[in-house]
Write a structure and sequence with these properties.
8-stranded mixed beta barrel; 120 residues
Amino acid sequence: MVKYETVVKKVGEMVEEGMEENLIILFNDDAPEMYHEYCLLHTINELREEIEKDDLFCMDSEEYKITAVGSGANKTLSELGHATIKFDGSMEAENPGTIHVEAKNILLNGENTILKFIKS
């Protein structure tokens, strides 16, 4: 079951630097302009069910197992289309809005990448 799905509309100029730090930041495309350069901008959609540890985060066909979900991540994703995805395999969330996934290469195909959170 797909819990959340959206499509990347714009890739900020600084996203690659974040990827070098093993993270990407998602934000709704109506986010304040000052955040655009750091984010993958997308159109917010309905969060059908809360994202949990062991669910999957997908970028197109690449899957990443979720290892930890911050206490505020579901709320910010639902209300603002905002989440930080950290590719470090941490078993504890570093920040309330962070979703940690397994430590694998980040395979981002740029604009039109389909992002999904899928129930495990």
